[in-house]
Design brief:
heterodimer; A: about 900 residues; mainly alpha; 38 helices; globular; disordered N terminus; disordered C terminus; B: about 425 residues; mainly beta; Methylamine Dehydrogenase, Chain H; four-stranded antiparallel β-sheet; about 10% helix; about 40% strand; WD40_PAC1 (chain B); Quinoprotein_ADH-like_sf (chain B); WD repeat (chain B); repeat (chain B); WD40_rpt (chain B)
């Protein structure tokens, strides 16, 4: 209509376009007050037009000469827009009112500063009645009024000269907002957002209503009807309240009051599951004897008394606790203009109280405890734990260096918690806390967390060596083989966790149940993994693996060179294997991303490569042992253009460039010869990038052999596989024995490799430290005992598997090493090859039976990977399994490494 | 008065009672002089830029020490504390949560700044503690008896961990033959110590061993690391500042001389303290000749010279004073509170309020989402279809919005149906 006249434009950027467009929008597309409803498409396009073209901005182009005509036209157009919108707002028709309020909200964001400063009070008055009306109004109108009102305040906050007016405006809506809080979900949801905005922007305006606000919010948080998400919002708002009355005590008082409420709720919940005194002790920390207890939070709330006892937990106790803890977390992580005291000791005690409850009954059984009660608690325990892990997370973040005096107790707590944390989400969160602790407190923490981080991460990751590749195959025997080896390797590391001797022999016979049983018992987190027949994923969930990898990465970053002899070689090897298998998996099949938000295999790849880079960069050796292979992985990853992986890989290669082409000599080079021996030898093992077991070699001659061996290994993979398996054995034996059987171990690969010259081996053999012998002896005794039954159980063919194992292990200190018969080994290999088809089933059985019979047992444990890999190689090696096979045997070797002096 | 945040001050204290002088690094003007203060080397510490702490040398013959706190803008002492023994070395952690003092009897003290509480004190060395350094929460203490010990503060502060630990310290290094005068820590858990035995030694805190020892022609009283970590500066008793390479050329190993790259030579007496600016371009040195010099490390020239006093300068610092709402300072307690009766006061330190993120543009977001939802079901007419069946959309990432709008939709339907049947019903 009117907008159409006025001649041609200079183009899309002609400022004259805007007033014209706006006039057209007002005239043709905005409905009249009380007019008919517009289709949503139309509304969306109006909104889009206004925002895309900035129709309401009245921003005249800078460079153009002032054009009074343009300014005037635009002003008039915006005037008419505002006029129409306001008319809509005040209209009787609810729809018009709703629409008008929507567009008024848009106007708040879009209009020019001058216009806003001029008209905000007018607009405020227009919206206010909709908030103040009794609930009889259309709730949608109330909702949108809250939203626009909060936009008004956000915009208003940018005008520092209007602060006073704004504050009084804010004060006027508080009462209405509080009333709206009690309305149904959606309205309350918007109202709480508005309240939150107001408290943040104009805390002083709330001062007058403080008590009422607090009690209303507390009542909502602790009520039974609010569902989780809005209750988090309520909790956040509650956390903002201390900023209303800024004082040193405000926040700390609020935290204490919350902790008291939570502690009391827990007293109820944990009856019979913990010591009697726990709650009382925490109370003493919160309210020191003699001090007045602070006013109870939400005292007028009837604490969920009207809910049936079976539901009370689910609908009242746990949601309330989690909302209150969320509130605490927010308070701990916000900044305050004053110093805020935090009752850390009580906080830590409370976290300890919750996190260490594992649902088992306390020694002193309370008469009131019923199995139903226990069941109900166990049902809710994961969410309680999750809440408190979040709180711990927030505590670490918020307290920063102040955590130091409590550092050790938190470290103990999280270390203990790892034994309880079995569900993937909880385990992931626990890992994240490890990461936070490591980063926040630095290298000192890694001393304390080293063991927990490494053992748990290895347990979670070590089923990864190649397993992901075979997961796609549904061949049961293959999977079973895989799983048995995984379980086996885990077992050695997590001996304390193993309690599965109850599994009967009959269960072992059936392959797939055994697989599940074994895996779920070994690593509790697996229990949650979906194990439908279609989805053969039996390993630790990806999210846990990623968290474990990230933890290792941070550990390496922070304390990578700390006490390296105990753990580095194992971790390095694990990381290269995980990275290899992750990358191979990613390439070999496209994983359907099951649901959005869940980590995919590419996340695992990224995490594993990141950890690998950290392992290279923090390596104590002049050249990291698996550098070549790692560079290959990075180079491959770099090709995946456009992904995060590629981005990271190119960065990683850049970082490694310094390592591969040193520009300055490192400090270690100048180390006095004695202690530096290890490192100089290491420098020579560089070629052995692929022969992982060489990393631990201390002796130069051996190290020199690596190259040969690697080539050979690559050239005839299949033939060498049994040899690999044998390596695995001895390595494993050493690790479990916790001794330094290193040289004996190294011997095996050498001996089995035909290219290696015997004299060197002999020399190496003599290197076996005498101290290790006794340890080995002990272990052997145990090994013999346990292993015998399992040998018997196996068919004759399996003897071929088990017998040599004994030789390599138990005899290592007696005759095997001094005169290690090369002959014997090759015999062994031949044996295995010949028999392997027959071996297949028994050997897998063997593996699992060992695992089940007793984890710490060395001798029997050995046989599992041995038998497994042999059969595996024979059956599948010629097809797809070659790579995975080598991958697989590698983690087993890792295990031996930490003991390498 | 109150320097604006970017202003960097050079602070210098003397063992003679000449106060702590503060010069503006850029203009060279003396800003303020805090009095009284007479500090021995390593006894001046800036507590995270919030305030200044200086352990006082005991009066001659006296066996009691004091620690003074000064506010940046007030010349007089703000708070005086009286620790159990004279404090030789004083150190604050990076965030200013703790003050660590090394006593003249070889004890170490760890105070919490917020409350003044003495969290722990323990016997560390046979003789006086001369210098302290922190790497994360590893504390490195050097003593007059020539020993260096590394303490893990997490262990030190926890009773149970202390009992479990085999030794109270993490490492103990005894390679220095004479008193250790200064220690500096750097990235990668590297520590450099200087000693009166005319050596500097480089240590790896993670491996727990000495990496190198560098022989100097004179006793070294102070070290400072270049932030780029390739060189460090060693202040000699002969008045020279030796520029020393951290690494060494492998081809010439054995001869430590090769690692001394050069010397900054302008002081007439021993260089007692050194500090490097964070960008590594400036080096500030304090000497017994009573002067403080600012060096340009690239040209190796003196760019500024401050006259402190007649007495020897013992401490220099470069600080960027932070103006924060400082809670009242508490004096440091003399003894540990009885078996943890008083809870260590963990505090959230005040911080300049960063802008609270407040979601704006909510109306338009609201509308967009809302309209999206509506469009998905073919326009508004669907709203009035009471049998509207809400499908599970695939857009999980919009979960929160989605649930809200499903709710909204329901609400809309009911509202409209209930209240405006005449006008709105199709």
């Amino acid at each position: 209509m009117a907008g159409a006249s006025g001649g041609f434009l200079a183009g899309v950027n002609d400022p004259l376009l805007k007033p014209r467009l706006l006039r057209a929008v007002v005239a043709e597309r905005l409905p009249q007050p009380g007019g008919a409803e517009l289709p949503p498409v139309e509304l969306a396009s109006v909104l889009d037009a206004v925002r895309t073209h900035g129709l309401l901005t009245e921003a005249l182009p800078d460079r153009a000469p002032a054009d009074p005509k343009l300014a005037e036209a635009w002003r008039a157009a915006v005037d008419s827009w505002v006029e129409r919108v306001v008319a809509l707002v005040v209209s009787d028709s609810a729809y018009s009112c709703w629409l008008g309020t929507c567009f008024l909200g848009v106007t708040f964001q879009e209009c020019s500063n001058e216009r806003f400063a001029e008209s905000y009070s007018n607009w405020y008055e227009k919206i206010l009645p909709n908030l103040q009306q009794e609930p009889s109004t259309l709730q949608l109108v109330t909702v949108i009024s809250c939203t626009s009102m909060s936009d008004l305040f956000v915009r208003l906050a940018k005008f520092s000269n209007l602060k006073k007016e704004a504050s009084s405006f804010a004060g006027r809506i508080i009462e209405s907002v509080l009333r709206l809080l009690n309305e149904n979900g959606l309205v309350a949801d918007e109202a709480i957002d508005l309240l939150c905005t107001v408290i943040k922007l104009y805390p002083s305006s709330v001062n007058r209503h403080y008590n009422k606000v607090e009690s209303t919010i507390a009542a909502k948080v602790m009520s039974t009807e609010v569902n989780v998400k809005p209750s988090k919002k309520f909790a956040r708002t509650l956390a903002l309240l201390p900023s209303v009355r800024v004082s040193e005590d405000g926040c700390s008082l609020m935290i204490r009051r919350i902790l008291i409420v939570v502690n009391n709720l827990l007293n109820d919940a944990f009856i019979g599951l913990e010591g009697e005194k726990n709650g009382h002790d925490i109370m003493l920390l919160l309210v020191p004897p003699g001090a007045d207890s602070p006013p109870t939070l939400g005292d007028q709330v009837r604490s969920g008394g009207d809910v049936h006892v079976t539901k009370k937990f689910r609908v009242y106790t746990v949601p309330t606790i989690s909302a209150l803890m969320h509130c605490c977390s927010v308070m701990l992580t916000s900044y305050y203009p004053v110093q805020v005291n935090v009752p850390m000791r009580a906080l830590v005690a409370l976290m300890r109280r919750v996190l260490l409850v594992d649902g088992s009954l306390h020694k002193k059984l309370f008469p009131s405890t019923t199995s139903l009660h226990q069941e109900l608690i166990c049902f809710e325990l994961p969410s309680l734990h999750s809440t408190f892990l979040d709180l711990l997370n927030a505590t670490i973040k918020g307290m920063r260096s102040q955590l130091l005096p409590h550092g050790a107790s938190i470290i103990r707590l999280i270390t203990e918690y790892f034994k309880i944390a079995k569900l993937p989400t909880l385990r992931t969160k626990a890992y994240i806390i490890l990461q936070l602790l490591l980063t926040s407190m630095g290298v000192g923490t890694s001393l304390h967390l080293l063991e927990a981080a490494v053992s748990n991460a290895i347990a979670d990751l070590s089923d990864d060596g190649g397993s992901d590749m075979t997961i796609i195959s549904t061949n049961p025997s293959k999977v079973a083989n895989e799983s048995s080896s995984k379980i086996y390797s885990k077992k050695r590391k997590q001996e304390p966790q193993v309690q599965n001797s109850v599994i009967s022999a009959s269960e072992k016979a059936a392959i797939s149940p055994r697989k599940r049983k074994g895996s779920s018992i070994q690593i509790a987190s697996k229990g949650m993994a979906p194990e439908t027949t279609g989805d053969v994923r039996i390993s630790t969930p990806l999210s846990v693996k990623i968290a474990a990898l990230e933890t290792l990465e941070i550990l390496l970053n922070v304390g990578g060179s700390l006490q390296t002899d105990h753990w580095r070689s194992e971790v390095d090897l694990l990381l290269i294997n995980v990275a290899r298998s992750a990358c191979d998996t990613g390439r070999s099949y496209k994983q359907k991303s099951s649901t959005f938000g869940e980590p995919s295999i590419s996340d695992l790849q990224l995490a594993s490569l990141k950890a690998l880079l950290a392992s290279f960069l923090s390596s104590p050796y002049a050249r990291p042992p698996y550098l070549a292979k790692g560079i290959e992985l990075f180079a491959k990853g770099k090709v995946e253009i456009g992904t995060k992986l590629a981005e990271f890989c190119s960065r990683a290669l850049l970082a490694l460039d310094v390592l591969t082409h040193p520009r300055a000599l490192s400090l270690e080079k100048a180390v006095p010869v004695g202690s530096g021996l290890n490192y100089s030898a290491q420098g020579k093992t560089v070629f052995g990038g692929g022969t992982y077991q060489m990393s631990v070699h201390r002796d130069q001659p051996q190290a020199m052999e690596v190259e040969d061996m690697y080539d050979d290994w690559l050239a005839s993979t299949k033939d060498d596989e049994p040899a690999e398996a044998a390596v695995t054995d001895s390595g494993a034996g050493a690790s479990t024995a916790g001794t330094m059987l290193e040289d004996g171990r190294q011997l095996n690969p050498m001996a089995e490799d035909p290219k290696i010259e015997p004299p060197r081996i002999g020399a190496a053999a003599q290197d076996v430290p005498p101290s290790s012998k006794s340890d080995v002896n002990m272990v052997d005794a145990a090994a013999d005992e346990i292993a015998k039954p399992s040998t018997v159980e196996n068919l004759s063919s399996s003897n071929a598997v088990s017998a040599p194992v004994y030789a390599t292990n138990s005899d290592s200190q007696k005759h095997a090493i001094p005169s290690f018969p090369e002959q014997k080994c090759t015999d062994q290999v031949g044996h295995l090859e010949n028999r392997s088809p027959a071996i297949n089933v028994p050997s897998s059985k063997l593996g699992t039976s060992n695992e089940i019979s007793d984890a710490p047992v060395v001798g029997s444990g050995h046989q599992a990977p041995d038998g497994r890999s042999t059969s595996f190689a024979e059956l599948f090696g010629s097809e797809s399994g070659v790579d995975s096979e080598s991958d697989d045997s590698v983690p087993d070797i890792v295990d031996g490494d930490p003991d390498s002096d | 008065m109150a320097p604006p945040p970017p202003k960097q001050l050079v602070l210098a204290a003397s063992s003679a009672d000449a106060g702590v002088a503060a010069w503006d690094l850029r203009t060279g003007a003396e800003e303020i002089r805090h009095r009284p203060c007479a500090s021995r080397p390593r006894a001046l510490a800036s507590v995270a830029g919030r305030f200044l702490a200086a352990a006082q040398a005991p009066p001659s013959g006296g066996n009691s020490g004091t620690v003074h706190f000064y506010h940046w803008d007030k010349p007089q002492v703000a708070v005086k504390s009286f620790p159990a023994e004279p404090i030789r070395a004083l150190l604050a952690d990076q965030e200013g949560s703790y003050l660590i003092g090394g006593g003249s009897n070889g004890n170490l003290f760890l105070w919490e700044v917020a409350s003044g509480e003495l969290l722990h004190t323990w016997h560390a060395h046979y003789r006086a503690v001369r210098c302290l350094a922190l790497y994360d929460y590893l504390l490195v203490s050097g003593s007059e008896d020539g020993s260096i010990k590394v303490w893990d503060l997490i262990t030190v502060l926890d009773e149970q961990s202390r009992l479990e630990a085999q030794t109270p310290y993490l490492y103990s290094f005894n390679q220095h033959a004479l008193p250790v005068t200064d220690i500096a820590c750097f990235l990668g858990a590297i520590a450099v110590s200087s000693s009166e035995d005319r050596t500097c030694k480089i240590w790896s805190l993670s491996k727990g061993r000495m990496l190198r020892s560098i022989q100097f022609p004179t006793s070294i009283d102070s070290v400072a690391l270049d932030p780029r970590s390739h060189v460090f500066y060693a202040g000699g008793r002969d008045g020279k500042i030796y520029v020393t390479a951290m690494g060494v050329d492998i081809s010439s190993h054995g001869s430590d001389e090769s690692s001394i790259l050069g010397a900054l030579d302008d002081h007439s007496k021993a260089v007692t303290s050194l500090v490097s600016s964070t960008d590594g371009l400036l080096l500030v040195s304090g000497s017994e000749d009573g002067n403080v010099r600012v060096w340009d490390t690239r040209s190796q020239q003196v760019t500024r010279k401050f006259k402190h006093s007649q007495g020897p300068v013992t401490n220099v610092l470069i600080v960027t004073p932070k103006r924060v709402n400082l809670p009242p300072l508490h004096p440091l307690h003399k003894v540990c509170s009885a078996n943890g009766e008083v809870e260590p006061r963990s505090v959230i330190l005040p911080r300049p309020e960063n802008d609270v993120p407040i979601p704006g543009n909510r109306t338009s977001i609201f509308m967009e989402r809302y309209l999206d939802e509506l469009q998905k079901y073919g326009g508004s007419s669907m709203l009035f279809d009471s049998g509207l069946n809400i499908q599970n959309g695939a857009q999980n990432q919009q979960g929160e919005w989605r649930s809200r709008y499903l709710e909204l939709q329901d609400l809309f339907v009911h509202e409209v149906l209930d209240q405006m049947p005449s006008s709105r019903n199709p």
